[in-house]
Amino acid sequence: MEAQYPGIATQAVMLTMGVMIAMLAAYYTRLIRVTQGFMTGVMAATGGIFLVYMTTMVLGFFGVSVPYIHGNGLIGIGFSLVVVGIAAMNLVLDFHMIEEGARSRAPKYMEWYSAFALMVTLVWLYLEILRLLAKLNSRR
């Protein structure tokens, strides 16, 4: 994508770091509180996104393309914005897991588990922001 839209990768990295810092600040100041309902909602939304992506991939094997959500129209851009929002909410769940693990003196291996979860979420957020920027740039 960098070859097609010069500077897009740097923009995506900067936006990803900005979102992470903003979500960490919101979590740290308790603007966003992690309740059981919040966790359930974020997990359900994440599962829904997973199902949409898996269905799209399986249908792609048979030559069927899913219209709108992967295009650069308003629906596609809106879908990407929702996915970026859900990925950002997953950062809050990662921060909560890290904080709860430290508070409860979780075993040492949980540090790696938590760091891996945070890194996976950051990579997912980066890819979704990159996809959103590509959709926006292709409309020019």
Q: Tags for this entry?
A:
140 residues
Mean pLDDT over the residues: 95
Number of domains: 1
Rg measurement, Å: 17 Å
Listing every helix as H and every strand as E from the N terminus to the C terminus, the arrangement reads: HHHH
Give the overall form: globular
Pairing-aware structural class of the strands and helices? mainly alpha
Helix content: over 70%
Discrete helix count: 4
N-C termini distance: 15 Å
Q: Main β-sheet, in a few words? A: none
What is the count of β-strands? 0
- Which residues form runs of ≥5 with pLDDT under 50? none
Proportion in β-strands: under 5%
Provide a quick synopsis of the model:
The chain is mainly alpha-helical and 140 residues long. It has helices at 8-28, 36-61, 74-103, 109-138.
What does this structure look like?
The protein is mainly alpha-helical and 140 residues long. The chain is 76% helix and 0% strand. The chain is built from four helices and no strands. The longest helix is centred in the middle third of the chain and has 30 residues. The two termini are 15 Å apart. The mean pLDDT is 95.
